[in-house]
């Protein structure tokens, strides 16, 4: 039994939902509300499970109830323990290309525009809404431009040829966020095409934020 | 032949130097100055190699001259292609624990305190030096507290028992940065002890920023 601690709008949790669906793994969801009660991820109960106080967290009852933090650590774990329907290509060079793009999203784009960072900007730093929006757009476009260039070897297909995986699990949630913040995406035709291909697949449709049990 | 595009003070490049040294792999260094010329990582020549315009980048001439961006993608690649002296433990649960800690540093701590972000704070946002320092300390202590808790299973040793690897390659450069910014680290005895154990090893000493050819 797999249990995913997540939040419908957390794009890191969204990555893991996609990966679990691609592998056809059943899982239970435990919602952790990122805003209510000052952020339930900071509650003593959740902090005892995950000292990082971030989402997502995966508990694997089939393997001693181990709890794994960090979405990309979870994706790697799933690919190692449930190798059927791989998330990463087999060739080490291709794997490296995929990981480099996914990590660019996960390290250098997403964390800068995360809710807790935007809250720090408007709270502690007293930044205006306009300046906060400019910050968001700056890091988003900076990151997406690099991803667009990096997608050249995957044009017309998925990161595993016929199948999406690790890369798409990071890309689609990032695009969801970009659209939520009304970002102009015309400069990224490869990203838009890959995302559109993913959105026709059930694994992605069923991972979408709006259809999660805790969506409001 | 391996070539590392880096910068002596880039902590992401520092991670890769440690990993290469741990594996005993020879490599050439190409310095890319992060400040000179408005940041040489933004030059047309470098951008053609790495559209992410970030360091490090690894070129592997032995494998078709492939170029790999993102320090953690490089670490994974090295562990797959040069498996001797592994960077990650063998057990998937242990691997997941190690990756979750390394990713917490690489995704949720380091990018927020990166040079380009600090530059945006003081430049575009006109934030004072004191407020910038408070930002730095906020994300550093937030991240280190979680890492300190996560190190409990590794107390007294390394992430691979007798040997350091992936985790230490991320931890030691982060500590180097924290010391550069005069952060009080007394609250993190496990981090300090693990770092001290690493610092006695040649692989770490030879990767230190100050002994790199481009150090000034």
UniProtKB/TrEMBL annotation, chains A, B:
GO CC annotations, alphabetized: cytoplasm
Residue ranges constituting the GST C-terminal domain according to the UniProt record: 91-216
GO BP term (any one): glutathione metabolic process
Single GO molecular function: glutathione transferase activity
Domain of life: Bacteria
Database matches in SUPFAM superfamilies: GST C-terminal domain-like (SSF47616), Thioredoxin-like (SSF52833)
UniProt-listed PROSITE patterns: GST_CTER, GST_NTER
Keywords tagged on the record: Isomerase
Domain GST N-terminal: 1-86
Family according to the record: Belongs to the GST superfamily. Zeta family.
Protein name: Maleylacetoacetate isomerase
Organism annotation: Pseudomonas guineae
